């Protein structure tokens, strides 16, 4: 017999290990009733608790990402024909719990099939931890996702509110709908953020080439009618090499937990059913303390006690009545000498009654003591800004430790109550990544306090006009262009993306706030007006706003509109690009809009660029922003583009010359651009408009309220 050499034993051992690992990685199915022993790869905030509950995100941090993928790969193409995708089936139970209960959530989650685990480079917020701004929508992603999203994102979604969608290589779903399920022939709504477990079935038939998605509460059998279906050949989506299956979730400003309780998956077959009784339990909210048991009544002594106790009670009541009378007398005298006129400070109850009919969901009602403690007694060291209506303080809420900005409206502001009601009625309901979130309010002795999401980088004007600046600036062009696009996205949502039209009426750099990632957030809705789509707004008694941003037609007609907001946005564009205030006179004794227009007329448009950029900018983007700013500031309101067209221009989906063929173009606009090249072409021929067409009739001095 031949002796086996040592090298051959080593080769045999390594081959055995390789075959074992191959069998593990190519496992065709699995079922986990609880994931404590699951073969998973986790990253981000994802973790598995001792009871087997998988949490993709938790309620500890905002802007979180969590991924959980089955560690082994799967072959989604037939070994015989690599162009034919195999069938697959999966079912899982999930739950989403928000810090605000079932009314508000911080983004959703998704089931994912991807070429690699972890989805490197993915972002939080509306990207659900799947993609980022640069790779979203690219066919090279090879990603299939079924999203369970709890927030409407105007950039990607077509369904208002929570929705379920099938995504291929990007977040613009190829098919999506509101979450419902069918039982006994009746369709019922399903709340994705109820905090209750919900079961999902996802099945793909490789022969019929049909993908089906079904949802139902765990106490309901699988409905016969799927919620979503998609007829699509996925052979080009799945790679011939291995693919991975798993889950992704992200959060935004609201602390949210995304849980997976059980998961079953199989290739070329039907996923094994989950044992619902064996699934781990969700964490329970803290229970209020149990009431103390009633104390046994003590027997009263029938002698001196019956005489002394009533006398003491009478004396205490008299002392209290005297103290109350003295207190109210002093307060009445103080109010007569110090309080503003009664008509300027409405009663808190009256304000609430007049608006309760218009508001479906109020933000949280904070106590005054809570806000006073959060701001260290409204100390000067927490003062971060002052405006026409009052002072803004930085604060930290004592219970949640949430950092907030608290706006304390002055009692002597004539429009203080109106501004408070406008902000509660508008921003209290709006939810968008480019709008500042209003967390709540407080009414205390005629004072109006509004609690906003705190923006760490404060407002944009502090970067454009630094107090101790030099010729250089730490706000480079890429950040400025990103801020411009974010502001445009928020304003587009106000004009066209919400259930009502919201006219902001005070778009300017000091009202564009910046979060920790330098994302733009439109704030200060104190002058906002709302009306229904297609209705139009009525005239106002005063022209409000900031000089330099006010459309020239406002002093004559006094009717705010989306076009007046677009004018202010145009002035904002020129302000960001030039680094100059719209309401100040510059070198040639002209307003900013007229000055930039004169530079264009002289074929020297880039002479208007902020010198602190040091020449470091993308010429095509700069020319586009300057020309678009002039177009938004057109004298004729009908000649200004809508914010939808502005978004197309900034995203590169249209150019200025295309407006003469669109519904947004005025009859005389074509002559202004037809003979000029695109704003993205050479800047030597940048004189697209005549100065008389692009410039307003002048900036009027008005009182800012």
UniProtKB/TrEMBL annotation:
<comment type="similarity">
    <text>In the C-terminal section; belongs to the protein kinase superfamily. Ser/Thr protein kinase family.</text>
</comment>
<feature type="binding site">
    <location>
        <position position="408"/>
    </location>
    <ligand>
        <name>ATP</name>
    </ligand>
</feature>
<keyword id="KW-1133">Transmembrane helix</keyword>
<dbReference type="InterPro" id="IPR011009">
    <property type="entry name" value="Kinase-like_dom_sf"/>
</dbReference>
<keyword id="KW-1003">Cell membrane</keyword>
<dbReference type="InterPro" id="IPR050528">
    <property type="entry name" value="L-type_Lectin-RKs"/>
</dbReference>
<dbReference type="GO" id="GO:0005524">
    <property type="term" value="F:ATP binding"/>
</dbReference>
<keyword id="KW-0430">Lectin</keyword>
<dbReference type="InterPro" id="IPR001220">
    <property type="entry name" value="Legume_lectin_dom"/>
</dbReference>
<feature type="compositionally biased region" description="Polar residues">
    <location>
        <begin position="678"/>
        <end position="687"/>
    </location>
</feature>
<feature type="domain" description="Protein kinase">
    <location>
        <begin position="378"/>
        <end position="656"/>
    </location>
</feature>
<comment type="similarity">
    <text>In the N-terminal section; belongs to the leguminous lectin family.</text>
</comment>
<dbReference type="InterPro" id="IPR000719">
    <property type="entry name" value="Prot_kinase_dom"/>
</dbReference>
<dbReference type="InterPro" id="IPR008271">
    <property type="entry name" value="Ser/Thr_kinase_AS"/>
</dbReference>
<feature type="region of interest" description="Disordered">
    <location>
        <begin position="276"/>
        <end position="297"/>
    </location>
</feature>
<protein>
    <recommendedName>
        <fullName>non-specific serine/threonine protein kinase</fullName>
        <ecNumber>2.7.11.1</ecNumber>
    </recommendedName>
</protein>
<keyword id="KW-0547">Nucleotide-binding</keyword>
<feature type="signal peptide">
    <location>
        <begin position="1"/>
        <end position="28"/>
    </location>
</feature>
<keyword id="KW-0812">Transmembrane</keyword>
<keyword id="KW-0675">Receptor</keyword>
<keyword id="KW-0723">Serine/threonine-protein kinase</keyword>
<dbReference type="InterPro" id="IPR019825">
    <property type="entry name" value="Lectin_legB_Mn/Ca_BS"/>
</dbReference>
<feature type="transmembrane region" description="Helical">
    <location>
        <begin position="304"/>
        <end position="328"/>
    </location>
</feature>
<dbReference type="InterPro" id="IPR017441">
    <property type="entry name" value="Protein_kinase_ATP_BS"/>
</dbReference>
<dbReference type="GO" id="GO:0030246">
    <property type="term" value="F:carbohydrate binding"/>
</dbReference>
<feature type="compositionally biased region" description="Pro residues">
    <location>
        <begin position="282"/>
        <end position="294"/>
    </location>
</feature>
<keyword id="KW-0418">Kinase</keyword>
<keyword id="KW-0472">Membrane</keyword>
<keyword id="KW-0067">ATP-binding</keyword>
<keyword id="KW-0808">Transferase</keyword>
<dbReference type="InterPro" id="IPR013320">
    <property type="entry name" value="ConA-like_dom_sf"/>
</dbReference>
<keyword id="KW-0732">Signal</keyword>
<dbReference type="Pfam" id="PF00139">
    <property type="entry name" value="Lectin_legB"/>
</dbReference>
<dbReference type="Pfam" id="PF00069">
    <property type="entry name" value="Pkinase"/>
</dbReference>
<dbReference type="GO" id="GO:0005886">
    <property type="term" value="C:plasma membrane"/>
</dbReference>
<feature type="region of interest" description="Disordered">
    <location>
        <begin position="665"/>
        <end position="687"/>
    </location>
</feature>
<dbReference type="GO" id="GO:0004674">
    <property type="term" value="F:protein serine/threonine kinase activity"/>
</dbReference>
<keyword id="KW-0325">Glycoprotein</keyword>
């Amino acid at each position: 017999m031949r002796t086996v050499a040592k090298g051959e034993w080593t080769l045999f051992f390594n081959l055995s290990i390789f075959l074992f690992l191959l069998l593990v990685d190519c496992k065709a199915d699995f079922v986990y009733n609880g994931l404590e022993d699951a073969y998973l790869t986790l990253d981000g905030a994802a973790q598995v608790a001792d009871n087997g509950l998988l949490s993709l995100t938790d309620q500890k941090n905002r802007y979180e990402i969590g991924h959980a993928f089955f560690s082994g790969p799967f072959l989604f193409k037939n070994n015989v024909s690599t162009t034919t995708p195999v069938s697959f089936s999966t079912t899982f139970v999930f739950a989403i719990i928000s810090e605000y209960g079932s009314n508000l959530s911080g983004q959703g989650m998704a089931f994912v099939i991807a070429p690699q685990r972890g989805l490197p480079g993915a972002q939080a917020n509306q990207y659900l931890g799947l993609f980022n701004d640069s790779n979203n929508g690219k066919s090279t992603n090879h990603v299939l996702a079924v999203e369970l999203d709890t927030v409407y994102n105007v950039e990607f979604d077509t369904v208002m509110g929570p929705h379920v969608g099938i995504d291929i290589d990007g977040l613009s779903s190829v098919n999506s709908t509101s979450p419902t399920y069918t039982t006994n022939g009746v369709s019922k709504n399903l709340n994705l953020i109820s905090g209750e477990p919900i079961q999902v079935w996802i099945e793909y038939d490789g022969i019929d080439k049909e993908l089906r998605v079904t949802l139902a509460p765990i106490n309901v059998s699988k409905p016969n009618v799927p919620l979503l279906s998609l007829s699509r050949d996925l052979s080009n989506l799945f790679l011939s090499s291995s693919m991975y299956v798993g889950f992704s979730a992200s959060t935004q400003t609201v602390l949210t937990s995304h849980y997976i309780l059980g998961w079953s998956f199989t290739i070329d077959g039907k996923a094994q059913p989950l044992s619902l009784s064996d699934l781990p339990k969700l964490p329970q909210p803290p229970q209020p303390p149990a009431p103390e048991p009633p104390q046994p009544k003590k027997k009263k002594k029938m002698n001196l006690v019956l005489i002394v106790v009533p006398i003491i009670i009478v004396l205490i009541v008299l002392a209290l009545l005297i103290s109350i009378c003295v207190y109210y007398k002093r307060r009445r005298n103080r109010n007569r000498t110090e309080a503003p006129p009664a008509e300027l400070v409405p009663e808190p109850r009256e304000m609430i009654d007049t608006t309760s009919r218009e508001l479906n969901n109020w933000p949280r009602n904070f106590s005054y003591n809570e806000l006073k403690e959060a701001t260290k007694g409204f100390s000067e060291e927490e003062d971060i800004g002052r405006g026409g209506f009052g002072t803004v303080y930085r604060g930290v809420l004592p219970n949640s430790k949430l950092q907030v900005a608290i706006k304390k409206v002055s009692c002597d502001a004539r429009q203080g109550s109106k501004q408070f009601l406008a902000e509660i009625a508008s921003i209290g309901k709006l939810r968008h990544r480019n709008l500042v979130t209003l967390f709540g309010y407080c009414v205390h002795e005629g004072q109006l306090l509004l609690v906003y999401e705190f923006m760490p980088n404060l407002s944009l004007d502090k970067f454009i006009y630094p107090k101790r600046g030099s010729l250089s600036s730490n706000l480079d062009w890429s950040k400025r262009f990103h801020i411009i696009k974010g502001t445009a996205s928020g304003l587009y949502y106000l004009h066209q993306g919400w259930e009502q039209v919201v006219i902001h009426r005070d778009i300017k750099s000091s009202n564009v706030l910046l979060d920790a990632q330098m994302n733009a957030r439109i704030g200060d809705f104190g002058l906002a007006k709302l009306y229904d789509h297609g209705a139009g707004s009525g005239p106002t008694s005063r022209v409000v706003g900031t000089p330099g941003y006010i459309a020239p037609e406002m002093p004559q007609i006094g009717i705010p509109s989306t076009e007046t907001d677009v004018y202010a946005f145009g002035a904002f564009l020129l302000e960001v690009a030039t680094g100059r205030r719209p309401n100040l006179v510059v070198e040639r004794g002209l307003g900013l809009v007229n000055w930039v227009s004169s530079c264009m007329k002289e074929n020297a448009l880039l002479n208007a660029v902020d010198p602190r950029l040091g020449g470091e900018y993308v010429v095509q983007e700069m020319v586009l922003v300057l020309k678009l700013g002039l177009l938004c500031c057109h004298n004729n309101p009908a000649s200004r583009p809508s914010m939808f067209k502005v978004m197309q221009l900034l995203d590169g989906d249209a150019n200025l010359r295309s407006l003469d063929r669109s519904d947004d173009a005025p009859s005389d606009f074509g002559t202004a651009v037809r003979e000029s090249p695109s704003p993205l072409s050479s800047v030597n021929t940048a004189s697209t408009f005549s100065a008389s067409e692009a410039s307003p009739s002048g900036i009027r001095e008005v009182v800012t309220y």
